[in-house]
Design goal:
The protein is of the alpha+beta class and 290 residues long. Helices cover 65% and strands 11% of the residues. It has 11 helices and 4 strands. The protein has helices spanning 10-35, 44-56, 60-79, 81-104, 112-132, 140-151, 155-173, 176-198, 213-222, 254-264, 281-289, and strands at residues 203-209, 228-234, 241-250, 269-275. Strands 2-3-1-4 form a 4-stranded antiparallel sheet, with helices on one face. Helix 1 (10-35) packs across helix 4. It is elongated.
Length: 290
């Protein structure tokens, strides 16, 4: 069987290009109008570029492209040509954006806390928009992916160690106060990236164990319009056969579901887990109706 090759239509290509450009310019706005004027740095390759810019005053846009370039090349064998092209385009747009905003010398606020919070939020929105459209603005994770194969550390451990090094250097070169604000900015941006990628309508995966599984399942299907799957298992202590109810519900449906379960069987056991992505026509239709 031949592998299926996915090709982008002209419309999809235009859409991706637009959002990659938009995300890069949003991130550039956060860097030039919030973080750089207040000597707050980001993590990763962008953070290194900002540090060099502070020390040498070399053009930040060019630094972003030059320092990211070797890591983008590494992605050719790991992540494919399309990702590399989209990443290179996004990084180039970020370089242009920083020069455009720097030309106007527009500083939104000189308050360190406001710059940290809103700079982090806007930066996270920009980076998240690029990631959502299969690009990247930073080669740190690409580098970590390659290093993890050679040294046995996880990608997360390498990225964390890399960022710790950057913020220690920031404390020595700038001030420890700047380094602490930079760490806070990174944390805020990281959380905003999750919001952009996952959305605010996060879904929940629910598993319910109850002797009244049939009654609970019937009400979930008929009254709440929630599709369920019945799973068969054996109790670890009792060694008795059990029927589990598995379903995925939106955050807004959770309160209704809990009320139904407690009313039918107060002794029912159920666990709830966050679901980052849900695919399927039935689920999307239910969310649209809420």
């Amino acid at each position: 069987m031949e592998p299926v090759k996915s090709r982008l239509t002209v419309g999809q290509l235009i859409q991706k290009t637009f959002f990659l450009t938009l995300g890069a310019f949003i991130a550039g706005f956060a860097l030039d109008c919030f973080l750089i004027p207040n000597k707050i740095i980001d993590g990763g390759i962008v953070g290194i570029s900002m540090m060099i810019n502070y020390v040498t005053h070399f053009n930040l846009g060019i630094l972003l492209i030059l320092i990211n370039l070797p890591f983008i090349c590494l992605a050719f064998t790991k992540l494919g040509k399309l990702f590399v092209l989209q990443t290179f385009y996004a990084v180039a747009m970020l370089g242009i954006a920083t020069n455009v905003f720097n030309h106007f010398h527009f500083v939104v606020t000189s308050d360190m806390l406001l710059a940290t919070v809103f700079g982090g939020i806007i930066l996270g929105v920009g980076v998240g928009t690029v990631l959502k459209n299969e690009g990247s603005l930073d080669g740190t994770e690409i580098m970590a992916l390659v290093m993890s194969k050679k040294f046995g550390f996880s990608v997360g451990e390498i990225v964390m160690g890399f960022n710790i090094f950057i913020y220690v250097v920031a404390g020595l070169v700038l001030t420890w106060e700047s380094a602490m604000y930079s760490i806070l900015t990174y944390f805020i941006a990281y959380r905003m990236i999750d919001v952009v990628l996952e959305g605010l309508n996060s879904s929940k995966s629910i598993r319910i164990i109850s002797d009244k599984w049939e009654e609970i399942g019937k009400i979930l299907i008929e009254d709440l319009d929630i599709s369920v799957t019945y799973l068969h298992g054996i109790g670890g202590y009792s060694r008795q056969e059990k029927t589990l109810i598995y379903c995925v519900a939106s955050r807004l449906e959770m309160s209704k579901m809990k009320e139904v379960i407690r009313r039918i069987d107060p002794k029912a056991f159920f666990s709830v887990v966050d679901v980052h992505e849900v695919y399927g026509t039935r689920m999307s239709k239910r969310i649209d109706k809420i």
